[in-house]
Amino acid sequence: MLDRTEPAHCTVCCCTLANKILMVLFMVLLIFAILFGNLVTLAVVLRTKHFHTPQGYLKASLAVADLAVGIFVVPLSVYAEVYLMVADSAPEWTSYNSQLVSFHPCNVIGPIFAGCTLVSITTIFLLTIERSIAVLRPLHKDSVITRKRTTNLIVLSWVGSFFLAVSPMIFSSEIALEYNPCSRMCNYALGTIGEFPSQAWNILLLFPMFDFTLLGGTVVINIISLSSIRQHSRRRKHLAESERQSSSKPTFSDIKAAKTIGTLTLAFTASFTPIAVFVVGNVLGNKWCNFSFFAFWILATNSCWNVIIYSVRDQKFRLCAHKLLMPFQRKNSTKV
Fold first, then answer.
1. What is the 8-class DSSP label of residue 191?
2. Buried (b) or exposed (e) across 240-255, using 16+ Cβ within 10 A?
3. Residue 158 domain-assigned (yes or no)
4. Are 192 and 99 in contact (CB under 8 A)?
5. Beta-carbon contacts of residue 326 (< 8 Å; ≥ 6 apart)
6. Are 188 and 175 in contact (CB under 8 A)?
7. For residues 178 and 287, what is the distance between their CA atoms, to the nearest angstrom?
8. Rounded to 5 degrees, what angle do the CA atoms 13, 17, 22 make?
């Protein structure tokens, strides 16, 4: 059972009423930003034939994972914090972990957040592979990267990611889920045992190990692709490209897309790194209460960044999104 009155649980975000109101306001705004941005992404991908490609499928998968965070994960935190402010006491289920009650909301929300985070990482990795083939082997792109293969990889990434998300509870009876008073989210925690056994320690470390392995591979592949793009740009400055040369080189759209995926990778790596540091520190026995709040919510905020990156880096996406939103703008202008 968690002691909600411990001073350590009075985080920098929630020690005063003003801070609590600002925190809830931030969460509510984050929900709207995630829903709006990712619904626009899905609408653009589904309604525009130009995006009915393997890359478009992967971006749609990434948007669905981010949507799940805005639909399930953040609203539960809003409910718990608003309940705490209104009733002056936290919901009863926040005082227990999932092993001590018959049904705990975190049994659902915790794996959803972990699974969607893993889906995002694997999807960005697949996007990087797809763009690297387009840049490094442009003549083989259409034969290697097909819609059917991409769809199968997307399904595999979702199944594998959610299996990893529930694996701590499957393979260890010592790990439970709880609403953490520091992070204000559903997190993995020890069950009824007070110290970390070696098995639970190893299982919890699987998450940062898996994530950083994929992210490390993604960064390396992006560096190789961007280096190839730089070499190609230098050659274009010194040589007049013949028709034969241009057919074996990546197109301008492939180059732009590769740079966009590189930006996505950089943004996700920056948002995930604090979580990995926190998990390792937590396993070693550090509480880091204030740090955990910022780490988890920085990661949650990443769910609304993708549409901003697409809009800035991808002109075609920006134009399609603008056309999609034009009817709403016209309705507002006619009302005025």
1. -
2. eeeeeeeeebbeeebb
3. yes
4. yes
5. none
6. yes
7. 15
8. 55
Q: Does 233 fall in a domain?
A: yes
CB 133, CB 144: distance < 8 Å = yes
Count of domains observed in the chain: 1
Tokens standing for residue 66: 């981010």
Q: What are phi and psi of 102, to 5 degrees?
A: -70, -40
CATH of the domain at 266: 1.20.1070.10
Domain, as residue range, for 191: 17-240+253-316
User: What residues does 178 pair with on adjacent strands?
Assistant: 187
Spell out the per-residue pLDDT of the chain, length 336, in tens: 344 444 445 566 777 888 889 999 999 999 999 999 999 999 999 998 889 999 999 999 999 999 999 999 999 999 999 998 888 888 889 888 888 888 899 999 999 999 999 999 999 999 999 988 888 887 778 788 899 999 999 999 999 999 999 988 888 888 889 999 889 999 988 765 555 555 666 777 777 788 888 888 888 988 888 888 777 666 666 555 444 444 456 777 777 888 888 888 899 989 988 988 887 787 677 778 889 899 999 999 999 998 899 888 888 899 998 888 876 555 555 554
Would 323 be classed as within a structural domain? no
**2: exposed, middle or buried (Cβ count in 10 Å: 0-12, 13-18, 19+):** middle
In whole angstroms, what is the distance from residue 75 CA to residue 77 CA? 5
Angstrom distance (rounded) from CA 274 to CA 135: 31
7 occurs within a structural domain: no
Q: What is the distance between the alpha carbons of residues 299 and 104, in angstroms, rounded to a whole number?
A: 23
115, two tokens: 């699974």
Burial of 108 (0-12, 13-18, 19+ CB in 10 A): middle
